[in-house]
TrEMBL record:
PANTHER family documented for this protein: GLYCOSYLTRANSFERASE HI_0523-RELATED, TETRAACYLDISACCHARIDE 4'-KINASE-RELATED
Name this protein carries in UniProt: Glycosyltransferase family 9 protein
The keyword Glycosyltransferase is assigned to this record: yes
Superkingdom in the source lineage: Bacteria
Organism: Billgrantia bachuensis
Amino acid sequence: MTSSSSVAGRHATDPPPHILVVRNDKLGDFMLAWPALACLKAGAPEARISILVPSYTAPIARLCPWIDEVILDPGGDAGKKEQRKLLARLRSGHFTSMLTLFSTPRIGWLGWRAGIPHRLAPATKWAQLFYNHRIVQRRSRSAKPEYQYNIELAEALLSSLGRKAEPRPAPPFWPLPTGAAEAQREAIASELGLDAARPWLFLHAGSGGSAVNLTADQYAELATRVDSCLAHEGIRPHWLLTAGPGEERIASDLCIALRAEDLHADVLPPRSGIDEFALTLGAADLFIAGSTGPLHIAGCLNRPTAGFYPARRSATPLRWQTCNDESRRLAFSPPESAGESEMSAIDLAAAAASIATFLKTYRARGHTL
């Protein structure tokens, strides 16, 4: 091998790639981009990875081990001044490639105007005209998980750059430093006076304003049934109820309802920001929620999850599967005979039995549940 040779398609004298990744929509979508980001770093470890995100997800993006730089997107509703500033920022970044995981005309136009020479995105509607590399995926068919579609785009980018295919990274896609999850558990135990040796079941009843979810009453029934199943085995879990902005009342009312049924329930106190909230989920023995951002944070942390999904094609358990290990996830949705968003058709007794069985056979943090 000569001194100028390196990985396929690249020479030692070439500058390292500077890749701009765009995932500038909701929290759950962004968390499902982390496997693709891990894939890019595995395939091009010397590359500088920048990400374009809205201010809402930026604090979590700054914690991602696969991201070197976070760039804020003011959004499509921002004025011309802010749009010009973003364009100038992209031009000054001297990016060699742009990977857009969810394409819109505005972003495609920005990448083209910024002069990024290598631009790849799904072949989606007319926005694809701004890209010189396009991948047909047909995501609307929901034939595979969203995070796998994202990984395929990352692999396509690496291939187009002449990079040798690497084995796909495995969970956790958000690996916490050693002892970080234990530290969160100790802090919460001290804050709320909880027994750290008991199973901690986090339950997020909010929907983020978009996801079809169980009602608070359904979650109360589910938790009561799970608790009853576990009580027969001598297991009494702590229920920790989480809430997003504007959802605090839902968590508070649910806590009152669970305590009335003699469950050990507490509302997780507000954190200083979405990044601190995300880190607390590392303390969960199980995270229960609809297909929301917090569920996908827990999946990215490789915590056990139980997700509740509508039956509609664009939001199936397969399409919005969490990216944790297969052995660490459960999914529930209405039967095919029910309406696509008829969450009341989910058999909560069966779901509770499945969750309880899962908890009884799963070892979390070295403790037998």
